[in-house]
Amino acid sequence: MEKPLQIVITGATGFVAKNLRKYLSESNVHLISISRKNFKAFKNETKIISKTYSEKSLLPKIINSDALVHLVGIGKQSSTESFDSINVNLTQNMVNLTIKAKIKKLVFLSGLGVSPYSSTEYFISKLNAENHIRNSPINFTIFRPSYIVGKDDLFTKYLKKCIKDKMIQIPGSGKYQIQPVYINDVTKLIFTSIKEEKFRKKIIDLVGPDIITFEKYVKLFLKHSKTKISYIDLEKSYNLAIRNSKFDYSVDDLNILVGNFVGNHKKLSKLSNGKFQSVIQLLKTGALL
Ligand SMILES: NC(=O)c1ccc[n+]([C@@H]2O[C@H](COP(=O)([O-])OP(=O)(O)OC[C@H]3O[C@@H](n4cnc5c(N)ncnc54)[C@H](OP(=O)(O)O)[C@@H]3O)[C@@H](O)[C@H]2O)c1
């Protein structure tokens, strides 16, 4: 019998990580999962609790693994956490650790729209993280995801809360586009990228088959509920986001939405040889509720 793959996952209790760990555990992978806090382990999973991701404590536990999937990341800054410290420096540390631990492959989730022309802090931090990986000698796959959709992602949870509160605010016209991708396709694809050589040293847009406006997405999600939709002027939205970290949309959320980023789904579908779930279909059937 073939020896099962051993895969290290960082940011273990995050949305993508939780779904990926479940999928890989069911696929008989031996997992080594790292989080800052305690969590319930799946079958075939070794748990590491580390607040600092220090090399000294992690290196002996992850040595010679087949892959490391780095899923630590923040989408908004605070007075205690900056994009530079988490998105860039921690990724650089994980690149060094991957090399020292002789791990064969690194998978990283960047962001759709990241490019050398990026001008916002979030995108620049993801670009700098990508560059640390690309300039290293390791084999990698970098995915640039649009909005990843599941039952338990942050935006779905927010929309469910809006249904309870019976109201939602849409910034600006809501006519900017998104290209959501289903979490089950994402977990499957990450595993495929670890196993298949054609993903070697590739940077790939991770986008679903449907391009849809934010407004239409929200309307489809809320369709059977009595949720009142109101539109909030974009200038006012930015004003609230800048002044109040508790406003529903952060400056970085607004930047991404207004950025209107879409990618090449056909290319992804051809490379992965797989059919992706239509998120519009999921919305229509109420499967995300
Ligand atoms: N979800 C999306 O739609 C989407 C789209 C584009 C890109 N991405 C990228 O995909 C990756 C995973 O996304 P996600 O949606 O799963 O995010 P998430 O749910 O916020 O999970 C990220 C995890 O990072 C860890 N983390 C956060 N701050 C940290 C810190 N200061 N020190 C150490 N670890 C910290 C946490 O894990 P623990 O609490 O377990 O320590 C957290 O659960 C991120 O890099 C994100 O930028 C996601």
Describe this structure in words.
- The chain is an alpha/beta fold.
- It has a domain at 6-148 and 181-208 and 264-273: 3-Layer(aba) Sandwich (Rossmann fold), CATH 3.40.50.
- Helices cover 42% and strands 18% of the residues.
- The chain contains 11 helices and 13 strands.
- Strands 3-2-1-4-5-6-11 form a 7-stranded parallel sheet, with helices on both faces.
- α1 (15-26) crosses α6 and α3 runs parallel beside α4.
- The termini are far apart.
- The mean pLDDT is 97.
- Residues 11-17, 35-37, 71-75, 81, 86, 109, 111, 145, 147-148, 153 line the site of NADP nicotinamide-adenine-dinucleotide phosphate.
What distinguishing features does this structure have?
Rossmann fold; two-stranded parallel ribbon; 289 residues; seven-stranded parallel beta sheet; globular
Can you give me a brief rundown of this structure?
By secondary structure, the chain is an alpha/beta fold.
Helix and strand pattern: EHEEHEHEHEEHEEEHEEHEHHHH
CATH architecture of the domain at 6-148 and 181-208 and 264-273: 3-Layer(aba) Sandwich
Q: State the end-to-end distance.
A: 41 Å
Low-confidence stretches: none
Write down the overall mean pLDDT.
97
Strand content bin: 15-25%
Name the structural class.
Answer: alpha/beta
Arrangement of strands in the largest sheet? 3-2-1-4-5-6-11
CATH class bucket of the domain at 6-148 and 181-208 and 264-273: Alpha Beta
Q: Give helix % range.
A: 40-55%
Described by the principal axes of the CA atoms, the overall outline is: globular
Main beta sheet: strand number and arrangement? 7 strands, parallel
Rg: 19 Å
- The name CATH uses for the topology of the domain at 6-148 and 181-208 and 264-273 is Rossmann fold
> What is the tally of beta strands?
13
What ligands can be seen in this structure? NADP nicotinamide-adenine-dinucleotide phosphate
Number of helices: 11
CATH superfamily of the domain at 6-148 and 181-208 and 264-273: NAD(P)-binding Rossmann-like Domain
